[in-house]
Amino acid sequence: MKKNNYENICSEVDVNSIESYVPMAPDIVQTTSFHFSNYEEFIDYSSDEKNHFVYTRGSNPTIKSLENKLAELEHGEKCKVFSSGMGAISATLFTLLQAGDHLLMINTIYGEAVSFGKYLSKYGVICDRVDVDSTEEISKYIKPETKMIYFESPSSQKFEMLDLDKVVSIAKKNNIYTAIDATWASPIFQSPLDHGIDVVIHSLSKYLGGHSDSVGGCVIGKEKIVNDIFEHGHQALGSVISPFNAWLTIRGLRTLPVRMKQFDSSIRYVLDAIKDDERIEKIYHPYVSTGEQKKIADKYLTGYGSLFGLDFKDKNFDKLKIFVNSLKVVSIGVSWGGFESLALPSFKGNNEANLKERGLPISHVRLYVGLENPETIVEDLKQAMDRAYKK
Ligand SMILES: *Cc1c(COP(=O)(O)O)cnc(C)c1O
């Protein structure tokens, strides 16, 4: 029997020897590690994994390509990508804070991020999450130990905005890091680094990936800060994105501006159609905000994200169930940012106290306007409201 020469067959696949090619889509470099051409190169590369390809837990060409694109989109010096938004958030807090520091979280924030902030108390980091009516009010909560102001603008759930210039000025006066989770606006509609924010975080699982098929996160900022987060938060916690998910996100970025343009137009259409409906008590979205909130939205946003919240006047749980179950185009699901419109009621039948704490009635629903025809989405919302709540 003929014996296969596995050394030759398996050790290396040189596709260039098959025929030279230039692919239209970028390569997926799906590998764990990389060859070194000699001993000296190995010594050189492995002493600086940030800037050389050694092992994919550190860096990888497909992931690097995504990082370069994200840094440029967000007007930042450097970007590090993670396997999830939470991977990026935990690595950032883990790296930039230490025992004795005070972490100040402002307004409503992605729940898991607040949980992690509070969890850091076991390492001696004290986390306060506070609600403010105006950006100036943040000053009230600054302590000598405050090391970081962490926020979202617009914020999760209530979609309230903070004045970025004022946050930066308060932080600079007190020598404090500023970190924003800017997932809602994406880099297309807001540029926090241009206003002096230190660190911008995105969940790539939402608009940036954009197709509900890959989870990821990123941190963008000054090279020195991102290198620090790479060396500690990324390398130690190991929240590494796969080259394939990085590749899917690059695919998402190619249509990001056209998708964002559509989301902006669709959300205006949907909100215009329902904002005066007498069955709705309140809508949470910068497009329908007033006063100071409206001024901040006009100053910082060049377009609107399509995630919003609403409260129905009628607080009956059974009617809320009828509304949610009557939706046909809009489906029930967590996350957002893909093609499909989504509804996510906050009340689960047993968490009224928790909602009260967050200032939300049990009739609160988070809605995401996707890429379906906006007229179809409005029709769907209206027929479900008609079924549940009499006019
Ligand atoms: C989804 C989300 C996150 C968490 O991102 P994952 O990729 O799911 O870990 C953080 N912040 C905001 C605002 C989000 O919407």
UniProtKB/TrEMBL annotation:
Q: Does the keyword Lyase apply?
A: yes
Pfam families linked: Cys_Met_Meta_PP
Protein origin, superkingdom: Bacteria
Alphabetized GO MF terms: homocysteine desulfhydrase activity; methionine gamma-lyase activity; pyridoxal phosphate binding
Question: Keywords for this entry?
Answer: Lyase, Pyridoxal phosphate
What catalytic activity does the UniProt entry give for this protein?
Answer: L-homocysteine + H2O = 2-oxobutanoate + hydrogen sulfide + NH4(+) + H(+); L-methionine + H2O = methanethiol + 2-oxobutanoate + NH4(+)
N6-(pyridoxal phosphate)lysine occurs at K206
Which Gene3D superfamilies does its entry note?
A: Aspartate Aminotransferase, domain 1, Type I PLP-dependent aspartate aminotransferase-like (Major domain)
Question: According to the UniProt record, what class of enzyme is this?
Answer: lyase
**Which cofactor(s) does the record list?**
pyridoxal 5'-phosphate
Q: Which GO terms describe its cellular component?
A: cytoplasm
Q: Which InterPro entries match?
A: Cys/Met-Metab_PyrdxlP-dep_enz (IPR000277), PyrdxlP-dep_Trfase (IPR015424), PyrdxlP-dep_Trfase_major (IPR015421), PyrdxlP-dep_Trfase_small (IPR015422)
Q: Reply yes or no: does the keyword Lyase apply.
A: yes
The record's EC number reads 4.4.1.2
Which CDD domains does the entry link to? CGS_like
Listed under GO biological process in this entry are: transsulfuration
Q: Which family does it belong to?
A: Belongs to the trans-sulfuration enzymes family.
For this protein, the record's PANTHER family field holds: CYSTATHIONINE GAMMA-LYASE (PTHR11808:SF80), TRANS-SULFURATION ENZYME FAMILY MEMBER (PTHR11808)
The protein here is known as: homocysteine desulfhydrase
Species of the source: Companilactobacillus paralimentarius DSM 13238 = JCM 10415
